[in-house]
Write a structure and sequence with these properties.
- The model has no long low-confidence stretch (mean pLDDT about 90).
- Helix 1 packs across helix 2.
- The protein has 2 domains: about 190 residues, Alpha-Beta Complex (Spore Coat Polysaccharide Biosynthesis Protein SpsA, Chain A), CATH 3.90.550.10; about 30 residues, no CATH class.
- The chain is built from 8 helices and 11 strands.
- The chain starts with 6 loop residues before the first strand and ends with a helix.
- The protein is α/β, with parallel strands linked by helices.
């Protein structure tokens, strides 16, 4: 890999959204939601290319207006509610290779539902990937809810989610402080080796964590989340910084 590498930012943005209609275009502090991600990505020094993968002509137009490339419209077959990230990345890599021979070293996954992501975070995650030699750098956040204390339904009965020897030995009432830390994908920025994506995975066998700040974490899945995000962004001075 070249010393700097070639890093392709991909913003997946479907037109359909059941929880919040037209979510990616919904205003957040006066601009479309997707614009916040495009702004941080275009300011990042590590990305040599930024594309939006969408099936929606209006999202494509808005994305171009804010500075992203939209070199194709995503086929409907990979724009359904249950479409995972992998075929979206694979399609983008094939399309760019066939169009102009562009072959990046890694895909940088930038979800538009994380508007508080900064350019510096993108650059730090990319640099971590470069230094680590891992297949994937995955952004994660600590969570207080531990799977050790979780249950699932089998019929009408609860059974432990973790059916392990340790849980049977220690019982369910173990103090949370004595359990090992667990982390949840935060979706802020993930960096995945191109070959890993081409071979059929968005993680690979070697994953390095990029720890994100829980104090600035939001995930926009409901109208209520938009209100929380705007309140947090105002409290952090995002309106003033971007005037």
């Amino acid at each position: 890999m070249p010393e700097r590498g070639r890093f392709l930012g991909i913003v997946p943005a479907r037109g359909g959204s059941k929880s919040v209609p037209r979510k990616n275009l919904r205003p957040l502090l006066g601009r479309p939601l997707i614009a916040w991600t495009i702004e941080s990505a275009t300011a990042a020094k590590s990305l040599d290319r930024l594309i939006v993968s969408t099936d929606d002509a209006e999202i494509a137009e808005v994305s171009r207006r804010w500075g992203a490339e939209v070199p194709f419209l995503r086929p409907a077959a990979i724009a359904a509610d249950d479409t995972p990230d992998l075929p979206v990345f694979q399609h983008a890599l094939r399309a760019l290779r066939e169009a102009d021979g562009y072959v990046p070293d890694a895909v940088v996954h930038l979800r538009p539902t994380q508007p508080l992501r900064t350019a510096a975070e993108i650059d730090r995650a990319v640099e971590l990937w470069r230094r680590s030699g891992a297949d994937c750098v995955k952004s994660v956040r600590p969570v207080a809810e531990h799977p050790f204390k979780m249950y699932r339904l089998v019929g009408e009965r609860l059974v432990p989610y973790l059916d392990s020897e340790e849980r049977r030995r220690r019982g369910p009432d173990v103090p949370r402080q004595s359990l090992e830390s667990v982390y949840l994908s935060s979706g802020v920025v993930d960096v995945v080796r191109r070959e890993t994506v081409e071979m059929g995975s968005t993680e690979g066998g070697s994953i390095v964590p990029y720890f994100t700040d829980p104090a600035t974490y939001v995930n926009l899945d409901s109208l209520r989340d938009f209100g929380i995000a705007e309140a947090l962004m105002r409290a952090l001075g995002w309106e003033e910084e971007r005037r």
